[in-house]
Amino acid sequence: MRVVLLMICLVFLASCNSQTCRDSVDPQKVILEVQRLEQDLFSCKSAKEVEAFLKKNPDFAQFFLHSDQYPSDSILADRMFGLIQNPSIDTLYQESVEAFKNFDEVVQTLEEGLGRLRVYYPKEISPLIQTAVTGLYNDLFISNEHIMIGMDFFIGEGASYKPQQIPNYILKRYTTDHLASSILQFISSQFITTSNGDEMLAEMIDYGKSYYLLSKIQPCTPERILIGYSEEEWEDVFDHDAIIWANFIENELLYETNHQMKQKFLGERPNVYEIGDKCPGRIGRWLGWQIVNAYAAKTGATVEQIMAEKNYNKIFTQSGYKPSGG
């Protein structure tokens, strides 16, 4: 009986696991090198040791700490050594280390995401990952060669110290859960051909293509994480998609060219009050994603074909998009 029950449980778990991932390609093997620079930096016992650390990691010093803005490395080293001696920074350091205790999972997601991206676009992208705690100086630097992460920005809601320059409605996405998606979206954006128009619909489609590609290279990450919505926001937009769509159509927003008007629906805002008090910001991006999803399902176009398509009106008209309530 125990064996039977165990087999039932295993089948049930396998079924649940298979439902958490969307269809995608098998990733090619990518292994990323990770350097935990916070450990080296905080072990320095003098400004001279910090200066040696900066010389050993020149790219990090330049791209993340902007060393080229200082007259000499010794001045930056003095500043950094004073920083790591600050008792408040020790709290920030300990909380950062705790927040990144499962960082291996983030790295694995990045490796698999880049491995899938390589299937679609055979380009060798294997950036060096470097983590650090810099007193909330910098959050991310991303290129094809480097991924530099300011861990102290991604502690989450319980952080004792939070970056003052980032609004709370954006800061809620500064967690390790969202980290891989933010990085992969930036890297994958180079493979997206932008639409040939300046109407809101063109930008909506471009954002939609970005999220569509991201969903393909991160098939096991919940879609709400990809766009940075909470569970409640994600459910609400689908529950009210007919109202959202009607607002765009009735107010002739799809072909709007005014930058300020476009930003109300595409840009960072806590809510799009023009649609409703609970309508989350960036709703135009979400809607563009749904249009691209509909286009892919309707036409059977490949990922590469969708990313290369410049004609946003073609994607829109051939999508036959209708809200689920419509």
Description:
The structure is a single chain. The chain is mostly helical. It has 17 helices and four strands. The chain has a four-stranded mixed sheet with strand order 1-2-4-3, sandwiched between helices. Helix 3 (47-56) crosses helix 5, helix 10 packs across helix 15 and helix 10 (200-217) packs across helix 17 (312-319). The longest helix has 18 residues, at 2-19. Mean pLDDT is 93; it is low at 1-19.
List the main descriptive attributes of the protein structure presented here.
single chain, 326 residues, mainly alpha, four-stranded mixed β-sheet, 17 helices, 4 strands, 5% strand, globular, disordered N terminus
The largest sheet, given as strand count, sense and whether it forms a barrel, is: 4 strands, mixed
Number of helices: 17
Q: Identify the strand order in the major beta sheet.
A: 1-2-4-3
Question: Rounded to an integer, what's the Rg over CA atoms?
Answer: 22 Å
Please state the structural category: mainly alpha
Order of helices and strands: HEHHHHHHEEEHHHHHHHHHH
Instruction: Report the end-to-end length measured between terminal Cα atoms.
Output: 50 Å
Shape: globular
**Helix content estimate:** 55-70%
State which percent range the strand residues make up: under 5%
> Would you count the extended β strands for me?
4
Give start-end ranges of low-pLDDT stretches. 1-19
Report mean pLDDT, rounded to a whole number: 93
